[in-house]
Write a structure and sequence with these properties.
With 387 residues, this protein is an alpha+beta fold. It folds into 2 domains: 3-176, no CATH class; 182-385, 2-Layer Sandwich (Heat Shock Protein 90), CATH 3.30.565. It has 12 helices and 5 strands. The protein has helices at residues 8-20, 22-28, 35-48, 51-64, 85-123, 133-136, 148-173, 178-223, 226-255, 270-279, 297-317, 353-364, and strands spanning 283-289, 322-329, 333-341, 368-374, 377-385. A 5-stranded mixed β-sheet has the order 1-2-3-5-4. Helix 11 (297-317) links the parallel strand 1 and strand 2. The protein starts with 7 loop residues before the first helix and ends with a strand.
Length: 387
């Protein structure tokens, strides 16, 4: 029961209610009449129609009612200006409810506090205020002091209950509208998709570079040929430099989420992948048909990553074997096929996630991907729609 009074938000909620009645209370010193509260309520109606008032009220509510900072990512209470008449209407209702609840809470807490003092005074034979004269019938009894804790408990319940009630109203009336909830959900979805894409790109790019480096180093050690070792070291250097560029770009996206995504490699840059695979000892035979420049950028970027992952899997699991790559662009789709002879599996890191990533990339673009043995070869066949 006492736990709420150890939290700062209990007192800031009470302060939030008192702030709402400061200016009407000052008016009472000028004109002591009940209709001043009616006028105060009437003045709040047009004020609530001002779009910027939603920001002011949202900041107050977020700070004093929930304890969140103004720059918090919490979307329970919106701090943006009113964007529709529905938002303005809810703000008017909020201002009126805050005034009414603030008035009731302040009067009740003050009266209960005065009642506690009057009960103690009556217990010791002192004169009490007019508020309890009718209840106590003007008599003085010692046991009146036992009632003082009850009024204090009622006052505490009023403070906690009114604070929770005004917070619930704020979440309902100052919370996001259906359109804002939909926009926030779409933004969250975009962020999750971006993180998934970044994770895939790190897997594809860094995995490809490490695979090439491991294969090249192993081949150079087994060959014992200085010329071959030089070529292997050069291939490792080129692949590692390209992987560092990809890593820097991805880290830049993570550091600055508001910044536009920098250009990513597309199928027009596929020569870099093919040369890297050839330098690793694979015999790559390439067949291209159709204009690659006409492929939409998202499709071309995902096609590049699919090709990269396919070549990485060849080097990782089959080694330096002949590879046939076919890229075809027609009126409505991009076709990509990578085939290599089936050999015994070579243990390597990350087994399984690469093929799943290929299928997921294709599915996100509305395409399809088939992976698996086919007539003595291992085949990766992908079809991506251009529209």
């Amino acid at each position: 029961m006492l736990r709420p009074f150890g939290r700062a938000v209990t007192y800031t909620r009470l302060l939030h209610l008192f702030i709402a009645i400061v200016w009407p209370s000052m008016w009472l010193f000028i004109e002591e009449a009940w209709w001043t509260w009616v006028v105060a309520a009437a003045v709040l109606a047009p004020v609530g129609l001002v779009p910027a008032m939603r920001t002011v009220e949202g900041l107050q509510a977020r700070l004093l009612l929930t304890g969140h900072r103004h720059d918090s990512e919490s979307t329970d209470i919106v701090v943006a200006p009113s964007a529709s008449w529905s938002d303005r209407g809810r703000l008017v209702v909020w201002l009126e409810a805050r005034l009414l609840l603030g008035c009731a809470t302040s009067m009740l807490t003050v009266q209960l506090l005065i009642a506690s003092v009057d009960l103690v005074s009556a217990a010791f034979g002192r004169d009490i205020g007019e508020g309890l004269l009718f209840l106590l019938d003007g008599h003085h009894h010692r046991w009146y002091a036992l009632l003082a804790p009850l009024t204090l408990a009622a006052m505490a319940a009023t403070v906690v209950g009114s604070g929770r009630l005004i917070t619930a109203l704020a979440l309902r009336l100052l919370g996001p509208s259906p359109a804002e909830r939909l926009a926030a959900m779409e933004m969250r979805t975009e962020q999750l998709l971006e993180r998934t894409r970044i994770a895939r790109e790190l897997h594809d790019s860094i995995g490809h570079a490490l695979t090439v480096a491991v294969v090249q180093a192993g081949a150079a050690r087994a060959a014992g040929d200085p010329a071959f070792t030089d070529r292997a070291l050069a291939a490792i250097e080129d692949t590692g430099r390209a992987a560092l560029e990809d890593l820097e770009r991805v880290l830049g996206i993570l550091r600055e989420s508001e910044r536009p995504v920098s250009s990513r490699p597309t199928l027009t840059d596929a020569d870099r992948l093919l040369e890297s695979a050839r330098a690793s000892g694979a015999k790559v035979d390439v067949e291209m048909a159709g204009p690659l420049d006409s492929v939409p950028a998202p499709v071309s970027r995902e096609g590049y990553r699919i090709l990269q992952e396919s070549l990485t899997n060849v080097l990782r699991h089959a080694g330096a074997v002949p590879v046939r790559v076919r890229i075809e662009v027609d009126d409505g789709a991009l076709g990509l096929e990578v085939r290599n002879p089936l050999t015994a599996d070579i243990p390597g890191p990350g087994r399984g996630s690469g093929l799943r990533g290929i299928r997921e990339r294709a599915a996100l673009l509305g395409g399809r991907a088939q992976t698996g043995p086919d007539q003595g070869d291992w085949q990766v066949q992908v079809e991506l729609p251009l529209r």
